[in-house]
Amino acid sequence: MHRPAPLLLMATGGTLIAADRTVNHPDAVRPPRRPLPPRPVRTPRPPGRLGAYRRIFAAPGTTAFTVGSLLSRAPMGMFGVSLIIMIATTRGSYALAGAVAAAGMAATAVLAPVVARLTDRYGQAGIAVPATAWSVAACLVLLLCVRYDAPSWTLFATYIARSTTPNTGGMARARWAHLYRDDPVARHVANSFEQVADELCFMLGPVLAGFLCTALFPEAGMLVANVLLLSGVLLFAAQRGTEPPAPGRSAARSGSLLRISGLPALLAVFFCTGVIFGALEVTTIAFADARGHASAAGAVLALQAAGSGAAGLLYGLSRPSGPATARFAASVAAMAVLMTLPLLAGGLPALACCLFLAGCATAPTMVNGMTLVQSLAPPARLNEGMTLAVTGILAGISTGAALAGTAAERLPPGTGFWLPVAAGTLAAALALRVHSKGTHGTRT
């Protein structure tokens, strides 16, 4: 009997098999099917240690406003150094440079809360852009006054006029608080990230400013700082989707924020923290200068910021537990203890190690402190509350620098390291007072 030629068919997996044309013949044998190979099971990759930071940037617009915030905050570490080098180089007077810087700091302490209050009332974009434009214009006039040897009073007037610079760090924290208002863990991570960003800006800003002013021309640092400030604020303000809603003119006012229970003591802690920063900076410079290594003082101080930044990055990965007031009191107490380490340093290398360790408690203190400010201040006045905290720090820096400068002139080098110890002890007592009041009983 003649049998038809088999057909070649393509089976799953690309295998050729023979198929009989007479498949309906009773004697025909159907070839067995080959089972499909099992699909490989993909095991989910465990999230990395930095997964918590990636998660907060999942919300649309967060990356863009963060880039703008970083660009606008980078000049914050550049202005002071640029001003001192610019005026000291062109006018030959560190006293004049210091006086102009102090006048600008005092003006900032007065104007910054006003700008923040307007920002909360009318929106970040509506106030930040014109305030920045005014600040940049005043600074450009300052550069012209320096370049064309205008009278000294014009330096004071123009540098005071530029004090309308908005607090973009506070505005960024306000955006995080609005986006993750129902997620305390995400807010904790976001606050930690913002503190690391602050430390990075204040660590790299002075280095960049010093390089620009010495390698190019005296006004270069201030000029670049203003370009970064304006471009950063414009990018930040353009991200309207993440901006907290503004209550407008009809919003109900609740009086001064200083009437809120616990907030004055909290701001006093921020002031003491600023005293620590200012005293450490001046005393470290005097300590290094007395040992013939004044040029190394900047690198030594950068290690303190590096220690704080590393601690902030790790602290953001921890899961907050217990009342925020308790965490704040514990971190301030740790900061007070670690501030005793510089007293043990006999030389510059030892001081560098001590400052790195001392800085490790700074970021947790700031993170917990800003968390408390977010829980205390009304949502409609959040930027004002955080600007008050920053203003307290700035006032403390000025006070600590002045006290440490007097100690450096009249007492042996290194004596000024007792100032951070005293300020830290007072801060710990005040933080304990905040905790004892059980402010809001918050666990955020």
From TrEMBL:
InterPro entries: MFS, MFS_trans_sf. Residues 21-45 are annotated as: Disordered. Keywords: Membrane, Transmembrane, Transmembrane helix. SUPFAM superfamilies: MFS general substrate transporter. The chain crosses the membrane at residues 70-88, 95-116, 122-146, 200-217, 263-288, 294-317, 349-373, 385-405, 417-434. Residues 34-45 have a biased composition (Pro residues). Pfam families: MFS_1. This is MFS transporter. The lineage of its organism: Bacteria, Bacillati, Actinomycetota, Actinomycetes, Kitasatosporales.
